[in-house]
Write a structure and sequence with these properties.
Blueprint (H helix, E strand, L loop, with lengths): L16 E9 L3 H12 L5 E4 L12 E2 L1 H9 L4 H4 L2 E10 L2 E13 L2 H14 L3 E4 L5 E4 L4 E4 L5 E9 L20 E9 L2 H7 L1 E8 L2 E7 L5 E8 H6 L4 H11 L1 H4 L6 E2 L5 E4 L17 E3 L14 H19 L4 H26 L1 H13 L1 H10 L4 H8 L3
Parallel strand pairs: 1-2, 1-9, 2-6, 4-11, 9-16
Antiparallel strand pairs: 3-5, 4-5, 7-8, 8-9, 10-13, 10-14, 10-15, 11-12, 12-13
Bound molecules: flavin-adenine dinucleotide.
Length: 397
C-alpha cells in the first residue's frame, strides 16, 4: 500500500561556518543510498537536500532488476510499498502493436514514495539530513571543499559526494559536449478507466511517435504513470501545449493513446524537465581535486529508453561509499571504475534513444520486437549493469 510520508525536519540552527568530514549534496537515490551504506558502517554523513518535503520527480518509475537488487540490500520492501509488477513490453507504432517478454520482472513505484522510503531508512540508521537546504556553489581545492549553502551557512567538508541529479551546482558544473540535450521530459499520473487499467496490468507500453517516445505503466495503488520525452522543436510545433501534444500523439498512434481514454489526470499539468544531457559520462581528469565524488546523474546520464538510470544512481551510491571506506578521499579510482561500469550501457542506450525517436529507427525497433522478441531481450540485457559490477559495489571492506 502506498504511504503518505510527512515532511521531515526543517534545517537545524544556521551557522556561518562549520567543518564536516563528509557532506552529501542531494538526497535522491544516489545520495541517500551512499549515506545509508556509510551509516551502516558507522560513518555519519551530513546530507543536504534542496526540497523541504516529499516531491514527485520526472521519471518513468520503472525499476529494473538491478535497481531492485540494490533496494533490497538497503532493506526496502517493494511489496510493502505497493510497487506494481511488470513482465512484458508492448510497443505501439503507427497504430500497430508488438509484444515481447522482459528478461526479468520489473517493478513500478512512484519516485515520491520510493525516495521518501529510502530517506526514512537512511535517517533510521543515524544519518543527519537537512531538508530545504540548497547548495549554491562549491569551491574545491586540494585539502577540502567549501560549500555555500546559503542561509544554512558555509561548510568546509573534507569529502563531498555531489549527488544533485539533473541540477548542476556552480563551481562543479558538468560539461555537456557530446550529449543530446534538445529533449524535454514530461510526466503525469493518471487514474485510468477500469478496462484500460486491466489492459495495462503487468505491461510497460512504449508509444513511438514522431520525434519522441512515451512510456506508460502502472505504479502503486493502480495509478498509471505516463512519462515521455520529445524533441523541443516538436513540442514547439504542438504550440508548446501538453494537451495538443497528447492529441497529436493520439492521432499518430491511436492504439497507444487508447489507454488514456476517459482517464483522469491526477495533477493540473505535467511535470517537466528541459535539456537532459543524455549520454554524458564524467571523465576523470588528471587534475581532478581529491575529495570530490560525482554520483548518479552527476556521474553519467543514461537515455531513459532503457529504464536503467535509477540502478546506475544506486550503483554509484554503493560504489562511492565502498571506495571511501577502502581507499579514503581519493576519487579518481572511483570515477574511473564508474565510467568503465556504465560506458557500454550509456553508449548503447544513446543509440537506442536515437532510433526510438526517428521513423526508420522506430520501424526497425518495432519489427525487432515483433519478429525476434528474444533478440530484443538480448539488446535489453546489454543496456544493464553487469553482474560483476554489482558484486563489486555490494562488497564492502
Ligand atoms: C524522462 C526521464 C525518464 C526516466 N525514467 C527512468 C526509469 O523509468 N527508470 C530508471 O531507472 N531511470 C529513469 N530515469 C533516470 C532517473 O530518473 C535518474 O537517473 C535518477 O533519478 C538519478 O538519481 P540521482 O540521485 O542522481 O538524482 P535525483 O533523483 O534527481 O536526486 C537529486 C537530488 O538532489 C537535490 N538537489 C539538486 N540540486 C541541489 C542543490 N543545489 N542543493 C541541494 N540539493 C539539491 C534534488 O532536489 C534531488 O532530490 C529517467 C530520467 C528521465 C529524465
Amino acid at each position: 500500500m502506498a504511504r503518505s510520508v510527512p515532511p521531515l525536519r526543517q534545517p537545524a540552527e544556521m551557522s556561518l561556518h562549520r567543518s564536516e568530514g563528509l557532506v552529501i549534496v542531494g538526497a535522491g537515490l544516489a545520495g541517500a543510498s551512499a549515506a545509508c551504506v556509510l551509516a551502516r558502517e558507522g560513518l555519519s554523513a551530513l546530507l543536504l537536500e534542496r526540497d523541504p518535503e516529499p516531491k514527485h520527480k520526472v521519471c518513468g518509475e520503472f525499476l529494473s532488476i538491478e535497481a531492485q537488487t540494490y533496494l533490497a540490500h538497503l532493506g526496502l520492501d517493494l511489496d510493502h510499498l505497493g510497487a506494481s509488477r511488470i513482465s512484458r513490453l508492448r510497443l505501439h507504432h503507427r497504430g500497430k502493436q508488438a509484444e515481447a517478454p522482459l528478461p526479468f520482472t520489473a517493478r513500478g513505484l512512484s519516485r515520491r514514495v520510493l525516495d521518501e522510503a529510502l530517506l526514512e531508512k537512511t535517517m533510521s540508521l543515524g544519518a543527519r539530513i537537512e531538508r530545504g537546504v540548497t547548495v549554491r556553489s562549491i569551491d574545491t581545492d586540494e585539502t577540502a571543499n567549501l560549500i555555500d549553502a546559503g542561509p544554512f551557512g558555509t561548510i568546509r567538508a573534507e569529502t563531498l559526494f555531489l549527488a544533485s541529479g539533473k541540477h548542476d551546482v556552480r563551481g562543479a558544473k558538468r560539461p555537456m559536449a557530446g550529449s543530446i540535450n534538445d529533449l524535454i521530459g514530461f510526466k503525469l499520473h493518471y487514474r485510468l478507466a477500469e478496462e484500460q487499467r486491466v489492459a495495462l496490468a503487468d505491461v510497460i507500453e512504449i508509444i513511438l511517435f514522431e520525434d519522441g517516445y512515451a512510456g506508460l505503466q502502472l505504479i502503486e495503488d493502480g495509478i498509471a504513470n505516463l512519462c515521455l520525452v520529445v524533441a523541443q522543436n516538436r513540442f514547439e510545433r504542438a504550440g508548446k501545449s501538453w494537451n495538443s501534444l497528447i492529441e497529436e500523439i493520439a492521432g499518430e498512434c491511436p492504439s497507444g493513446a487508447n489507454r488514456l481514454r476517459d482517464a483522469l489526470p491526477l495533477w493540473d499539468k505535467p511535470l517537466s524537465i528541459f535539456q537532459i544531457p543524455y549520454g554524458f559520462i564524467h571523465q576523470p581528469q588528471p587534475t581532478e581535486p581529491p575529495g570530490l565524488f560525482r554520483l548518479g546523474d552527476q556521474m553519467g546520464v543514461i537515455p531513459s529508453f532503457t529504464g536503467e538510470g535509477m540502478s546506475m544512481a544506486l550503483h554509484s551510491g554503493f560504489l562511492a561509499a565502498s571506495s571511501l571506506l577502502r581507499q579514503g578521499r581519493g576519487s579518481t579510482a572511483f570515477h574511473k571504475q564508474m565510467a568503465s561500469d556504465i560506458e557500454r550501457q550509456v553508449r548503447l542506450a544513446f543509440v537506442l534513444n536515437k532510433a526510438a525517436r526517428f521513423g526508420p529507427g522506430q520501424t526497425m525497433l518495432f519489427h525487432l520486437c515483433r519478429s525476434w522478441p528474444s533478440l530484443m531481450q538480448q539488446v535489453a540485457a546489454f543496456t544493464r549493469l553487469r553482474e560483476a559490477s554489482l558484486q563489486r559495489a555490494l562488497a564492502l571492506p
